[in-house]
Amino acid sequence: MSLSERWTGALEELRGQGRFRSLKLPRGLDFTSNDYLGYGARVAPTGEPVMARSGIASRLLRGHHAVWDEVESSLAAWHGADAVLMMNSGFSANEGLISTVVEPGDWVASDELNHACIVEGLRVCRPRKFVFRHNDLNHLEDGLRAEAAKRPAGRELFIVTESLFSMDGDRAPLCEIVALAERYGAGVIVDEAHSTGCFGPGGSGVIDELGLRDRVLATVHTGGKAIGVTGAYVCGSRLLKDYLVNKCRHLIFTTALPPIVGNWWLDALDRVRSGDADREKLHANAAAVHRTLARHSVPTLGDSYIIPVVLGDDPLAVRVATRLQERGYDVRAIRPPSVPQGTARLRLSIHADHDPAVLQRMAEHVAEAVRDA
Q1: Can you tell me the distance from the alpha carbon of 254 to that of 74, in angstroms, rounded to the nearest whole number?
Q2: Pfam families, per this entry (predicted)?
């Protein structure tokens, strides 16, 4: 039984039980929401509903709004995908997706540096886990090969990775990972939190930049980073969306985002799709900082706009960060458990609107602080 057959069978069972759910707009007098004092139903002086109010219910219980249909359709078109499902945060989107589609007895290969929300999602669903060394394709294939040889009937294989890693600033070898997944019959889930808006056609991410959209099971995207708006979403097939609407506890039992946030999403999407010049400046700024730090022999990881300066020792990282803060730079020391033991670091987050001259001075001051610490 394939994964799509597993989902279709589960949904058909719900239909047969009269339990299949879909998102519906509010209508009629409200005896469904949790708007106990009536504040959420108040109208503005113009007579229009106050869009800033909370959804006052989950999306399945009067918390849905027409704006979310528009947002989800626009996002799906942006990615060239069948469907999108909005969620309240990147953490809940990743945890909810993974803990819903992965079942006990399934096998999941997870990069050792995956974010805590991915780790938590796997903890909740209790699969057989294989944690592969960071971006190590040989280690990943070792696990896939061993598992494929003894794969129990009816059990699925998954690979979960980030596209751009939040603490190392490097990209996953996604083309090679997808090729391995296809060879061994695994579904691929990619967290695009730190790449959405910054890579790909109109900024839609690394998966779209590489032309892999039809070859992955799902991607997760957040608004609270480059896009600059609260919320997150899962991108995939129409079947996956139906399955999550009916099975994902993180959607079913969560109060919906307020409708006004949907308007923010539409505005932000227009801005990011037309932001090629900003993306070019972002990558140019990052490259300039990498060059300056390399010239001063400051050790960094990756080649992106997330620039880790690995110092190793926790007190040393704090000391260097403090010196930079005293110079007026908001640079933080990142220590375990956010990063592995012995890899305390500075995490420099480069932006498109940083002035190149300021970036040059900052990089010089980083080199000086590291040398003198």
Answers
A1: 23
A2: Aminotran_1_2 (PF00155)
Mean pLDDT of 329-354: 93
* Residue 162 bears catalytic tag: yes
- Domain count across the chain: 2
Shared-domain flag, residues 194 and 50: yes
In this prediction, residue 37 carries a pLDDT of: 44
Tell me the CB-side half-sphere exposure of residue 229, using CA atoms within 13 A.
Answer: 25
Residues 6+ apart with CB under 8 A from 335: 314, 317, 318, 344
Do 116 and 13 fall into the same domain? yes
The pair phi, psi for residue 152, each rounded to 5°, is -65, 150
CA angle 102, 215, 80 (to 5 degrees): 105
Domain that residue 221 falls in: 3-273
Q: Are 305 and 333 in contact (CB under 8 A)?
A: no
How much is the pTM?
Answer: 0.91
- Active-site residue, from 4, 34, 237, 349: 34
